[in-house]
Design brief:
Layout (H helix, E strand, L loop, with lengths): L4 H38 L2 E6 L6 H12 L5 E5 L4 E6 L2 H13 L5 E2 L16 E8 L6 H12 L4 E4 L7 E9 H10 L5 E2 L2
Antiparallel strand pairs: 1-3, 1-4, 2-3, 5-7, 5-8, 6-7
Helix pairs in contact: 2-3, 4-5
Length: 195
Amino acid sequence: MQWNASQICLALLRVLSEKIANMKITLASLATSFALILSAYSAEVNTKISDVHLCCQSCVKGVQAAVGKVSGATASVNKDEGTVELTGPDAATVQKAADALVAAGYFGKSSDSNIKISTSTGAKGKQVQSLKLEGVHLCCGKCVTAVDKAVRSVSGVKDHTAVKNAESFEVTGDFNDKEVFAAVQKSGLTGKAGK
């Protein structure tokens, strides 16, 4: 059989078309694999912390300052909704950001069950006549009002010494120490039992 020029050209075009189609599939597979690998490495972890006490711009700045100390973490704060969205390159970084938020005196609920908001306060669940709270965020009168409402909701509390910008304050009466912290945390704030 003898091939003429047009038959040879058609045969070459078919072979080239098959090769190009195979190359396209291979290139598409490589591109997809590369994209998946990149997305896995660039995927950020985030969680929304809700019910956080954010009554003023100073509260917002306090959250941003606390989270800003954690390398790789960012905080997007919505004052009106009382939410803080924590973002980082991995879960460990976001957990450190959540821990920094709590250490700064804020409290809330995490939307991600893997990111824990520490409820540890040092309270022993005992009836006491006096309790010192340290590290509760108290940047303004509205923060003090929130604490006042929270601690006075606890049976047996008579008074407290919380004031704006206080690093610590005393609660007095005859009450359960854990109940005071539970009430303060319900208001979106937290702290530790002092000595």
